[in-house]
Amino acid sequence: MPSAKALTACAPGQSRRELPCAGHRPPAVPGGAPTSQKPRKHESWYAFGFARPNDPETPEVPEHLVVTPGAPGSGVLFIDWDHARRAESYRVSVLSSVNSPVVAERLVEESEITLTGLASGQTVRIAVASRNAKGGESAAAPEVTITVP
């Protein structure tokens, strides 16, 4: 008697439920384990830029935070990040690297900001959190540490 793992050709009249048979092997997933799971239906919502009706209301955490220094001595930082799903605005916090007091904080609607008037030579940490009226505020994106030019 063949083992349960052996694949045999499908006999005439044999259904797919009588696995395993050649030609009806479930697709493999990374790591080699076979699976019969179909793609999740909710993935199509996101592919078209929509949120599902039963998604949580809290906005997602902003990703890919990039801080670019301005010209030397300018005290300017250019901050940019990817738009977070369900975000209506963002809280940008500039924190001192010493005791974590807030040096500056801005609320913006776009996923970028230019901060001016910062003290040159000061090392700061930049944190960005997304916000909306329905779900409150997300956790902050991973901080970026930079010395103000």
What can you see in these coordinates?
This protein is 3% helix and 32% strand. It is mainly beta and 149 residues long. Strands 3, 4, 6, 7 and 8 form a 5-stranded antiparallel sheet that branches. Strands 1-2-5 form a 3-stranded antiparallel sheet, with no helix packed on it. Mean pLDDT is 80; it is low at 1-7.
Topology of this structure?
Blueprint: H1 43-47, E1 63-69, E2 77-82, E3 89-96, E4 102-108, E5 112-115, E6 123-132, E7 136-137, E8 144-147
Antiparallel strand pairs: 1-2, 2-5, 3-4, 3-6, 6-7, 6-8
Using the alpha-carbon principal axes, give the shape: elongated
What is the CATH topology assignment of the domain at 63-147?
Immunoglobulin-like
* Span between termini: 76 Å
Q: Tell me the strand percentage band.
A: 25-35%
Give the count of helical stretches: 1
CATH superfamily grouping of the domain at 63-147: Immunoglobulins
CATH class of the domain at 63-147: Mainly Beta
Largest sheet: 5 strands, antiparallel
Alpha-carbon Rg, integer = 26 Å
Count of β-strands: 8
Order of helices and strands: HEEEEEEEE
What does the average pLDDT come to? Answer: 80
Helix/strand/pairing category: mainly beta
Low-confidence stretches: 1-7
Level-2 CATH architecture of the domain at 63-147:
Sandwich
Fraction in helix: under 10%
Descriptive tags:
149 residues; Immunoglobulin-like; 5-stranded antiparallel beta sheet; 3-stranded antiparallel beta sheet; 1 helix; 8 strands; 3% helix; elongated; disordered N terminus
Short description:
It is built from 1 helix and 8 strands, in the order αββββββββ. The chain has one helix at residues 43-47, and strands at residues 63-69, 77-82, 89-96, 102-108, 112-115, 123-132, 136-137, 144-147. It is mainly beta and 149 residues long.
